[in-house]
Design brief:
The chain is α/β, with parallel strands linked by helices. It folds into two domains: 252 residues, Type I PLP-dependent aspartate aminotransferase-like (Major domain) (Aspartate Aminotransferase, domain 2); 129 residues, Aspartate Aminotransferase, domain 1, CATH 3.90.1150. It contains 14 helices and twelve strands. The strands form two sheets. Strands 1-7-6-5-4-2-3 form a seven-stranded mixed β-sheet, with helices on both faces. A five-stranded mixed β-sheet has the order 8-9-12-11-10, with helices on one face. The chain is globular and about 80 Å long. Bound molecules: pyridoxal-5'-phosphate. The site of pyridoxal-5'-phosphate has 14 residues, from helix 4. The site of pyridoxal-5'-phosphate (PLP) has 14 residues, from helix 4.
């Protein structure tokens, strides 16, 4: 997609300013219901609720502006907006499966997505196998005759593992399996799964699309037929829809998305390169470091990395990991990512080595590079690294 196309989508597409006094910013259509001049028109609206504004647990004009922009950015026909990323993921998955079906999910997918596909859907007779997403043959081996969905997330958000989107889409098509890909990390600016043949693209809008740590939201982008099926099914029935105020906040955030992404990406890559040379750092996971085992694949299917990456600290124990994180002044200790501010989150905060086995290294620390001055962030990391007690490896 050219910069002209991107800027047209972000600034113009879906906007109809003459209808709202030529205001530059679209109005927030804060209404639950839409009224009709005649009962005949009400009846007509009710029978076409995908196209018409009838009730805001359905279509809403503010949301529609955002839907058009996100669908165009992802290169899909339609987009639906949800109350959270998890609501979007659930709707996309539930639309494809029923009792007796099976799905395959990559083993490093977002935790709550794994919980949905594993424990939760088992109650409804849907089975799920986890597969190593790095290896298309492992994915193929997990397919069964009743497999309906292949669920991908590339890169994954903890260890930044990739899946080959073109290979996965071809494999799934041969088996009549629908592909769903979580594209939250890259945003449609840096990766467009639909161009590789992926059927459904999902996002947590709580990350870069929102971008200011002030909202939770989700997105499904797909073809028109499937979008209508999700709309009539999961969207209207489960009802986890995005309020128009949140759609408006995301519209505002989209205006600066290219600018923000450029800064997040440049700062993160610089910090990752620097950390790789630090003696207390055992490994750095960033898809655009040449040391990443899937660097070539990253360069083939993504335009760039973003602000999120992780590293393994040479620390003696869990306490030293926590203490390192506590010494940071610019990086806030928090989950999630994608906002203006830098964040740190060690896996040891969510997985206790004894009680709960973790799919990630125990000493893994995830960083989100925010929009602050990169020198400040590097100095902050340097000072905190200097405080980490020695281990056998460093002594
Ligand atoms: C945060 C996140 C989600 C879930 O989104 P919510 O908006 O928190 O429900 C899904 N996938 C990825 C990769 C995420 O980082």
């Amino acid at each position: 997609m050219t910069p002209e196309q991107i800027s047209h989508i972000i600034n113009e597409l879906g906007e109809d300013r003459a209808r709202y006094y030529n205001a530059a910013a679209a109005p927030i259509m804060q209404t639950s219901i839409f009224t009709f001049p005649t009962t005949e028109e009400l009846a007509e609206g009710l029978s076409h609720s995908f196209e018409r504004n009838v009730y805001s647990r359905g279509q809403n004009p503010t949301n529609q502006i955002l839907q058009k922009k996100l669908a165009a950015l992802e290169g899909t026909e339609e987009c639906l907006l949800f109350s959270s990323g998890v609501a979007a993921i659930s709707a996309a998955v539930l639309n494809e499966v029923g009792a007796g079906d099976h799905m395959v999910m990559v083993d490093k997918a977002y935790g709550p997505a794994r919980a949905l596909a594993g424990k939760y859907l088992a109650r409804f007779g849907v089975e799920c196998s986890l597969a190593d997403g790095k290896d298309p043959e492992a994915i193929a081996a997990a397919f069964r005759p009743n497999t309906k969905v292949l669920y991908l997330e590339t890169p994954s958000s903890m260890v930044l593992e990739l899946q080959d989107l073109t290979a996965c889409a071809e494999l799934a098509r041969r088996h009549g399996v629908v592909t769903i890909c979580d594209n939250t990390y890259a945003t449609p600016l840096y990766q467009r799964p639909a161009e590789h043949g992926i059927d459904v693209v999902v996002h947590s809008a709580s990350k870069y699309l929102g971008g200011h740590s002030d909202l939770v939201g989700g997105v499904v982008c797909t073809d028109g037929e499937r979008a209508r099926r999700i709309f009539a099914g999961e969207y209207l029935t489960l009802g986890g829809v995005m309020p128009p105020f949140h759609a408006w906040l995301i519209l505002r955030s989209l205006r600066t998305l290219p600018l923000r992404m450029e800064r997040h990406a440049a700062t993160a890559l610089r910090l990752a390169q620097w950390l790789e040379t630090h003696p207390r750092v055992l490994a750095v996971h960033h898809p655009f470091l040449p040391s990443h085992p899937q660097y070539e694949l990253a360069r083939r299917q993504m335009q760039s990395g973003t602000g999120l990456f992780s590293f393994e600290l040479d620390a003696p124990d869990r306490e030293a990991i926590f203490s390192f994180c506590d010494h940071l002044k610019c990086f806030h200790r928090a989950i999630s990512w994608g906002g203006y501010e830098s964040l740190v989150c060690p896996t040891a905060a969510s997985y206790n080595r004894q009680a709960q086995p973790s799919p990630y290294p125990w000493n893994l620390i995830r960083l989100h590079a925010g929009l602050e001055d990169p020198d400040l962030l590097q100095a902050d990391l340097e000072a905190a690294l200097a405080m980490v007690p020695a281990t056998a490896a460093t002594a």
